[in-house]
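hey all, quick one before standup. I had two proteins in the batch that finished overnight and I want to keep them in one place so we stop losing track of which output belongs to which input. First protein below, input sequence then structure tokens straight from the run.
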Amino acid sequence: MRGLTAAQADDVRQALHTAERRSGLRFGVFLGEPVGGRRHFAERLHAALGEESDSAVVLFVDPAGRGMEIVTGESARSRLPDGACRMTAMSMATAFSVGDLIGGLLYGIAALGEQATARR
């Protein structure tokens, strides 16, 4: 995970593992610049998960471009509707805006995992 220290990358991996274990969904994070449009790139990352994409959630964050996308598969979307993802994205953006990349990521992963677990 480019741009993170080893300890921060470990924290993100642990947060992903916890969200997956609790919710039963597949979570992924990509940090970096998109190739092409941000939304299209995030959707391609999600599609690359193949058979797992139906129950997957991908968080794409472009720190340099100051943007992010959350993409959910069809099954995941039933437990994480667009409104819930928007609210989480707004909270993440607030953390990012004050320079707290890791805090925003950890919050977003945990919040989405908890919301998906509550709707299980």
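OK second protein, same deal, sequence then tokens:
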Amino acid sequence: MSHGHHHHTHAHRATAAAPTFSLLRLSVGQRLAGSAVLLAGLWGMVLGVMG
């Protein structure tokens, strides 16, 4: 009985972590595009604060 409860807990954790794992399924191009957008946003913030 305790085994079934443990399995349910593990399944819940897997479901909660699904969005994180979906990021791993992105293609290399999508990862590069995402990192480029993040870098552009960071530079925009830095220049905005300095300017």
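Flagging for whoever picks this up: The mean pLDDT is 75. The radius of gyration is 19 Å.
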